[in-house]
Amino acid sequence: MMTLEEKFERLRAILQEAGSVVIGYSGGVDSTFLAKAATDILGDKALSVAALSESYPRHEREEAERFARDLGLNYTTIFTSELDNPEYRKNAPNRCFYCKQELVIHLKRIARERGFNAVAIGTNYDDLGDYRPGQQAAREEGALAPLAEAGLTKEDIRQLSARLGIPTWNKPSFACLSSRFPYGEEITREKLEMVDKAEEVLREYRFTQFRVRHHANLARIEVLPEEMLKLVENREEITRRLRKIGYNYVAMDLLGYRTGSLNEVLHQIALPAGEKV
Questions:
Q1: Whole-model pTM above 0.90?
Q2: CB atoms inside a 10 Å sphere around CB 267
Q3: Per-residue b/e over 123-135, b at no fewer than 16 CB within 10 Å?
Q4: What does the pLDDT look like over 198-207, one tens digit per residue?
Q5: For residue 105, how far is the Cα from the chain centroid?
């Protein structure tokens, strides 16, 4: 077992070996740590790129820009159009493959145009044990995963982020808005906008961690069990506002917030050939 310091030194070595790198940056815990570490180690030979699209929450875009500015990242944005891909819109269990594939292709183009040696994403060591088709796409396109290669877990990254004064060290996990839809329900711009607006409503109540899962005309809200009472106390106002957005029904998930809750039904769905849960 490597110590935290040994893992960090391994990360330094990986980035130094790359020489220059374009990083897929979202403003989340992992990619922000990777972007800051790469900037500290490589200077302007590290470029952080945020991919803006309809599935990227507005609040997260604003935070990512602020973090990039405050941390002194070499930062730029691009626009991706995964919704133009019918394979992405139909929302099969391997949906993330097409999103990550497009992202890495864009990053590789930027690397070629600007003379960078490699592209990298913020996959951590814990991610390797989950069903994440996006990782497969990134590997196939040749993207590096320095955090995972260094053996850094999510908890490791939070600890190191706190030491380095990175503001995302205690940031709740987030995922793109498309993760709010049950597999098989088509993803559209209009539905993504509904979810984004609904989660903005919940953000006003300062829930620690939450999701609005979109089930046609029903919004299934997940919050931490210890914050369920607050949701119940504000149920009438929250319901009124979500109905105004377009939901006919609003429900609370009694199991509370958990990462990837929509993956719980994957064993009932036939995955593409060669893929496993």
A1: no
A2: 8
A3: bbbbbeeeebbbb
A4: 999 999 999 9
A5: 18
